[in-house]
């Protein structure tokens, strides 16, 4: 059975580049149309109005072409933290016909080398603190394209200062009028999360990004909470604490907010107290967040010191949010918390929850123009309320993995459906529920145990601040056991705490889900920049401990 979106289909995306679409949309439909001098982006004492953003975007595009000598289809690496200048750099590069690689500025030498080996950029925009690292990696990976084109957004003795390349000369814009160019020419290259292996380059076209913007626009036009907020305050603020280099922050915060006329309050780095301070100061109304941040809003005592009553609408994405945490935040902040679901390969959003008809714990409905099939391990189509792998199709599905046709074929089937690797189901109302990653399910004596379910349960224990569950292999029983890593409150610490938590969990789950692999208290759960639990880091930690135990036993 193929499931369809309950929403009207989006109009066909216009054959134009992303910045042209965003600015034309904002000029017609947002508050920026009548007042272009309203602030679009603000960070500490630096702000860009909408008109300044448009002007700087043109100047960046011209500078990249006329002053740096870049050509259409060249790759440019945007290696930046959140900044008011991220938008004009990204949009300017796209306007110039370049392909933007967005990456984490905190990458280590090895991670950056992997990116360079994957796709060698012809230019890089970064911060001066990263200059030596970038130069070193370019040398070690024998990059022949960069030729010293390292631009920094802050002045330094080395590199090219961003404001020195801004230019008003004319330049040739790319022609995307043909269907092939619009749908198959890459615009953005984002890296997959790499939670189950080395990150792959996800190629997204101008058509992919514009389609997903339109899908979210149609959804919000049918969402009563957003409609009420817009009527009450057509020009309102959102917090930009999610990294722009991640596709969630890039599309739903950076690009979407410009198109819809929202002011973005930019946070270069997340801090719970700063988030609360900025929310109070700027009367933040909308926040796109990830579960680790929402957990802090639910449990951190810092929140009580600030007036967060302006916060009306929180969207949670990138990882599952438990029903309990969702309810706790809604009660504490008296605001709406709605889940969303997606993945880099889908540009990224595929599902969003409404505030009036979707139960807590659900990721909501399929976005407009999307289709879904749920399959079992043999590939058989499943019906409603049957758990299987979620597979999706729509105009937002990626071109493919960069220079990796085999991985692309393994992920997108012959019918055009993207196999997400996530396990879930759809109920009678068309609401979707994500159980866990297919590859991360724990197999205990033939039973499947979802780590996310146990993690959500552990988070309900009063002593637990954060949790992650992985499989550990028992040679004696020849099966996997679930093992939990937990971060606990200091005031709950006791010699019996681990046993207490284990018994507490066992009393609330079927016997096969019990934490037979044990519970280990650690200082912090490793997570990606988007908030996903890095279970592979914990698996590597466990493997190292197992090797040490085995060696010690031999001695």
TrEMBL record:
Any Pfam family: AMP-binding_C
Q: Which GO-annotated molecular functions does the record name? A: CoA-ligase activity
Q: Where is the AMP-binding enzyme C-terminal domain?
A: 453-532
**UniProt domain AMP-dependent synthetase/ligase: residue ranges:** 33-402
Lineage: superkingdom: Eukaryota
Q: Which UniProt keywords apply?
A: Ligase, Membrane, Transmembrane, Transmembrane helix
Instruction: Provide the transmembrane region boundaries.
Output: 242-259
Checking InterPro entries in the record gives: AMP-bd_C, AMP-bd_C_sf, AMP-binding_CS, AMP-dep_synth/lig_dom, ANL_N_sf
- Tell me if Mitochondrion is a UniProt keyword of this record: no
Per the record, the similarity remark reads: Belongs to the ATP-dependent AMP-binding enzyme family.
Q: What is the protein named?
A: Acetyl-CoA synthetase-like protein
């Amino acid at each position: 059975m193929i499931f369809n979106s309950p929403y009207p289909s989006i109009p066909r995306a216009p054959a134009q580049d992303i910045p042209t679409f965003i600015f034309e949309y904002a000029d017609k439909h947002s508050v920026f149309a009548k007042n272009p001098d309203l602030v679009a982006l603000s960070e500490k004492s630096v702000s860009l109005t909408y008109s300044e953003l448009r002007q700087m975007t043109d100047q960046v595009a011209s500078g990249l072409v006329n002053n740096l000598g870049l050509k259409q289809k060249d790759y440019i690496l945007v290696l930046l933290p959140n900044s008011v200048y991220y938008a004009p750099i990204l949009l300017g590069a796209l306007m110039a016909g370049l392909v933007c690689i967005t990456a984490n500025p905190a990458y280590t030498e090895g991670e950056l080398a992997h990116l360079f080996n994957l796709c060698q950029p012809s230019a890089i925009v970064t911060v001066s603190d990263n200059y030596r690292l970038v130069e070193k990696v370019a040398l070690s990976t024998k990059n022949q394209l960069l030729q010293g084109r390292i631009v920094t957004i802050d002045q330094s003795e080395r590199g090219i200062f961003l404001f020195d390349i801004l230019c008003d000369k004319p330049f040739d814009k790319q022609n995307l009028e043909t269907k092939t160019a619009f749908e198959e020419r890459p615009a953005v290259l984002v890296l997959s999360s790499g939670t189950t292996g080395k990150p792959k380059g996800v190629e997204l076209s101008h058509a992919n990004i514009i389609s997903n913007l339109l899908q979210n626009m149609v959804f919000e036009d049918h969402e009563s909470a957003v409609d009420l907020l817009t009527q009450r305050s057509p020009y309102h603020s959102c917090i930009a604490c999610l990294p722009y280099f991640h596709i969630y922050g890039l599309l739903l915060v950076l690009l979407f907010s410009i198109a819809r006329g929202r002011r973005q309050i930019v946070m270069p780095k997340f801090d719970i107290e700063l988030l609360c301070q900025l929310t109070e100061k700027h009367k933040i109304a909308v926040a796109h967040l990830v579960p680790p941040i929402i957990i802090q809003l639910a449990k951190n005592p810092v929140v009580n010191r600030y007036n967060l009553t302006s916060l009306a609408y929180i969207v949670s994405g990138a990882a599952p949010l438990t029903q309990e945490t969702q309810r706790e935040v809604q009660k504490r902040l008296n605001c709406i918390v709605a889940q969303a679901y997606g993945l880099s390969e889908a540009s990224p959003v595929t599902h969003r929850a409404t505030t009036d008809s979707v139960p807590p714990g659900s990721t909501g409905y399929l976005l407009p123009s999307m289709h879904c099939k749920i399959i079992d391990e043999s590939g058989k189509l499943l019906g409603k309320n049957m758990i299987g792998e979620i597979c999706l199709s729509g105009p937002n599905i990626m071109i493919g993995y960069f220079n990796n046709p085999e991985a692309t074929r393994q992920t997108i089937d012959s019918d055009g459906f993207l196999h997400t690797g996530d396990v879930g189901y759809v109920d009678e109302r068309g609401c979707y529920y994500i159980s866990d990653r297919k590859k991360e399910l724990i197999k205990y004596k033939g039973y499947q145990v979802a780590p996310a379910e146990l993690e959500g349960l552990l988070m309900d224990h009063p002593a637990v601040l954060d949790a992650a569950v992985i499989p550990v292999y028992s040679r004696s029983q020849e099966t996997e056991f679930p093992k939990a890593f937990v971060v606990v409150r200091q005031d709950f610490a006791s010699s019996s705490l681990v046993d207490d938590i284990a018994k507490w969990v066992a009393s609330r789950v079927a016997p096969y889900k019990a934490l037979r692999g044990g519970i280990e208290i650690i200082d912090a759960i490793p997570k990606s920049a988007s908030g996903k639990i890095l279970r592979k880091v914990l698996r590597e930690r466990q493997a190292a401990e197992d090797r040490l135990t085995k060696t010690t036993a031999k001695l």
